[in-house]
Design a protein that fits this description.
The complex is a heterodimer of chains A (96) and B (436).
Chain A lengths: L2 E4 L2 H4 L7 E4 L4 H11 L1 H7 L10 E5 L2 E2 L15 E6 L10
Parallel strand pairs in A: 1-5
Antiparallel strand pairs in A: 1-2, 3-4, 3-5
Chain B lengths: L5 E2 L2 E7 L21 E6 L9 H5 L29 E3 L1 H7 L4 E5 L10 H14 L4 E5 L3 H13 L2 E7 L4 H8 L4 E5 L3 H14 L3 E2 L5 H6 L2 H10 L7 E5 L4 H15 L9 E7 L4 H8 L24 H10 L3 E5 L1 H15 L5 H15 L9 E5 L24 H11 L20
Parallel strand pairs in B: 5-13, 6-7, 6-9, 7-8, 10-11, 10-13, 11-12
Antiparallel strand pairs in B: 1-2, 2-3, 4-5
The chains are: A alpha+beta (96), B alpha/beta (436).
Chain lengths: 96, 436
């Protein structure tokens, strides 16, 4: 099983600029554990001191907010697109 | 990065509310490190002594009379007379809902597009120009779309505006007429907003409520400055504010705090009350449950201008409301329509659905004893009823036409409303007054 992870520019600086990559994670906690291994800087950026996803990040599975789907308990399906977006996003931080 | 950070000598910069890092001045709304919202922080000492009651009184009758406390670039020349809307004593509405000291802040007549969004857009577009954007835009539930389209036209900027596909026809028309590109998105506001955050990453556009959001949000403070000034430089006991994203209510609080810090008003506790539609009430729900977070909702209400199920400033607004000793309430669509009618019938103000929410919530707050009848309370009416006439569809069916004859008219009036028929007593002859 494979899901496609999509990140905004603000987070892609922790993944060598990659805004999209495949993951074998079965659920959100599994995805965060995968970040620990593959992208420790990203894991540090998106997780709070308790190891949970920061409250300023929203997660969407195929355009639906994961909180409407059961949150951490929601099981990803093969081919899902999982998008992480800061709740107040916008702007790359680069000069205009 | 634009490093200069002065407005007429006022120092301000972007700062993260969570980790405290500063980011100067640039089109950026979230902290790259901890992803929390960025907010503009002003060095109030830089305006102390310059921003006074007298300096404000000498300014124009618009939001620009408070420009020292707004994030506008050095040399910015205000163009439009936005804001400085009436603060009206609302005695008739007060009698209806049991309030002796009630005021309406009437942004239904804000210039140029009849909603409080004109304030935030004016400040955002001043910065869009300074940052070098030639195309601006927004995600909108309607009022913001109208305002960005109108003010962009005036400033010669291109505008691309994204709205939910089910938006009221009047709000779509009131955007297109200014020549803006309007894109209807097959989804609700939260879908539109999410798309805009992705667009902000890829396009060099100034999206007023996305990458320009910290600047845009400061424009809301002018509602608070005006309330204080129009009350004779004093603060009310309570304000009742409609909540969509949760930004306005927080910025009114910030405005009051700045005026206190600068000595323009005496310090006093002000309670903040938030108003939502039950069909989209994540912040009200959070306040009632005592949460520091919000649980997103799928909006289902006629108050489309408040239909944000995942409000960006929701958690902060919830926390702030409770900290002031205030409360939040939500009302049904039926109550919203009644609120629109009540405000129109008592005060002659035709507001949109959001104003119906505010009026109906205020009535409930008085009825439940959350607000005492003698306290000075200001209701923030943020938009105009001409934009949401569909909410009243079927309420006023057309009566039959009457022939242009007095007998026909007289019979008709006696039938439909005898209270309008003059009494049979002869009219008093006008008293003759001697000319000496």
């Amino acid at each position: 099983m494979s899901v496609k992870i999509v990140l905004p520019t603000a987070l892609a600086r922790h993944t060598d600029g990659k805004k999209s990559f495949d993951s074998e994670a079965a659920d959100l906690p599994g995805l965060l554990a995968e970040f620990d291994l593959k992208f420790p800087a990203l894991a540090q950026n998106v997780k709070d001191e308790h190891g949970k996803l920061r409250r300023f990040i929203n997660v969407y599975v195929n355009d639906e907010d994961i909180r409407f789907l059961g949150g951490d308990a929601h099981q990803f399906a093969d081919g899902d697109e999982v998008m992480l977006i800061p709740s107040i996003a916008g702007g790359s931080g680069s000069a205009i | 990065m634009v490093s200069s950070c002065t407005a007429q000598g006022t120092k301000y910069e972007l700062r993260c509310n969570e980790c405290g890092k500063s980011y100067g001045n640039q089109p950026l709304s979230g902290c790259p490190d901890c992803l929390a919202p960025l907010e503009l922080h002003f060095d109030l000492d830089s305006v102390r002594g310059r921003f006074t009651r007298e300096s404000v009184a000498a300014g124009p009758a618009s939001i620009w009379r408070y420009r020292e406390l707004l994030p506008v670039p050095e040399g910015f020349q205000p163009d439009l007379p936005v804001g400085f809307t009436p603060l009206l004593r609302a005695n008739a509405l007060g009698r209806r809902i049991g309030a002796d000291n009630l005021y309406i802040k009437n942004d239904a007549v804000c210039f140029p597009t009849l909603s409080f969004k004109d304030r935030v857009v004016a400040v955002a577009l001043a910065n869009a120009q300074a940052f070098g954007f030639t195309t601006v835009g927004c995600s909108s539930t309607g009022n913001l779309a109208n305002s960005v389209a109108a003010q962009a036209a005036r400033l010669g900027l291109k505008a691309c505006i994204l709205v939910p596909s089910d938006l009221e026809p009047a709000k779509i028309l009131n955007t297109l007429v200014y020549g803006a590109r309007l894109v209807r998105i097959d989804g609700n506001y939260d879908h539109v907003n999410r798309l805009c955050t992705l667009i902000a990453d890829e396009y060099r556009w100034g999206l007023v409520n996305v990458n320009l959001r910290p600047y845009y949000a400061e424009g809301s403070k002018t509602v608070g400055y005006e309330i204080a000034e129009q009350l004779g430089w004093r603060l009310p006991d309570n304000v009742v504010v409609p909540m969509a994203g949760g930004s306005l209510i927080r910025k009114i609080k910030k405005a009051f705090a700045e005026l206190i810090a600068l000595g323009l008003v005496a310090d006093k506790p002000v309670r903040f009350f938030g108003a939502q539609a039950t069909g989209c009430s994540p912040i009200s729900h959070s306040v009632k449950n005592g949460w520091d977070h919000i649980e997103p909702q799928r909006p289902n209400t006629i108050a489309r201008s408040l239909a944000i199920g995942n409000p960006a400033d929701g958690p902060a607004a919830s926390k702030m409301i409770r900290a002031t000793g205030g409360w939040a309430e939500d009302v049904s669509d039926v109550e919203i329509v009644s609120g629109i009618q009540e405000l129109a019938e008592t005060e002659g103000i035709f507001t949109e659905t959001a104003g119906g929410v505010t009026t109906a919530v205020a009535a409930r707050l008085y009825a439940h004893g959350k607000i005492s009848r003698d306290e000075t309370t200001v209701l923030c009416i943020t938009g105009n009823g001409l934009k949401t006439t569909d909410a009243l569809e079927g309420r006023y069916p057309a009566e039959r036409a009457v022939k242009p004859r007095l007998t026909e008219f007289d019979a008709y009036i006696r039938e439909v409303d005898p209270s309008l028929v003059p009494s049979l007593e002869p009219a008093l002859a006008p008293e003759l007054v001697s000319a000496d």
